[in-house]
């Protein structure tokens, strides 16, 4: 077995160990190559096509798993200072996102279903999307001024 193939098999096996932590239905394609190197040091399903957003979610989810552990849970919260009058929420509904990289459209549908289950059919106010958890990460530290 060539050293390159042995390295590939070793790295692919270690990547496989981590794929069990990915969300159901996730696909992973990864290529790592040192600048100036003739070939990649890791080539895992590199021919598989993936949208960049999907790729970034996988990397983010894996980083969260490794840094925060498997028991950490992100929170997406609904808040309102309004009152319920019949089936109408009178006041703003604030959706406070916590940065969950695994949040899906179905999760958002489930949030709406929960509201409906609580008898909220109409909102007489604004829908406020709070992404303030990200405010310190909107620019690289070298950025100055307005982008």
Overall tally of domains = 2
Largest sheet: 3 strands, mixed
Distance between the termini: 51 Å
The helix count comes to: 3
Report the count of strand segments: 8
User: Based on CA inertia axes, which overall geometry fits?
Assistant: elongated
Question: Which strand order spans the largest sheet, edge to edge or round the barrel?
Answer: 3-6-8
Radius of gyration, in angstroms, nearest whole number: 22 Å
The helix/strand class is: alpha/beta
Question: Which spans of ≥5 residues are poorly predicted at pLDDT below 50?
Answer: 140-147
Name the beta content range.
15-25%
Order of helices and strands: HEEHEEEEHEE
Average pLDDT, all residues:
80
Percent of residues in helices comes to 25-40%
Features:
3-stranded mixed beta sheet, serine-type D-Ala-D-Ala carboxypeptidase activity, 147 residues, elongated, 2 domains, Peptidase_S13, disordered C terminus, 3 helices, D-tyrosyl-trna(Tyr) Deacylase, Chain: A, 18% strand, protease, D-alanyl-D-alanine carboxypeptidase/D-alanyl-D-alanine-endopeptidase, alpha/beta, 8 strands, EC 3.4.16.4
């Amino acid at each position: 077995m060539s050293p390159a193939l042995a390295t590939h098999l070793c790295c692919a096996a270690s990547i496989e160990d981590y794929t069990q932590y990915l969300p159901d239905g996730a696909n992973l394609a990864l290529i790592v190559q040192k600048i100036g190197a003739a070939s990649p040091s890791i080539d895992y399903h590199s021919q598989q096509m993936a949208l960049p957003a999907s790729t970034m979610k996988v990397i983010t989810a894996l980083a969260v798993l490794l840094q925060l552990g498997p028991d950490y849970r992100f929170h997406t919260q609904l808040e309102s200072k309004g009152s319920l009058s019949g089936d109408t929420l009178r006041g703003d509904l604030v959706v406070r996102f916590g940065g969950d990289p695994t949040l899906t459209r179905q999760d958002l549908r489930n949030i709406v279903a929960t509201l409906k289950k609580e008898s909220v059919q109409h909102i007489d106010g604004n829908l406020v999307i709070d992404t303030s958890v990200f405010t310190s990460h909107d620019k690289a530290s070298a950025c100055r001024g307005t982008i």
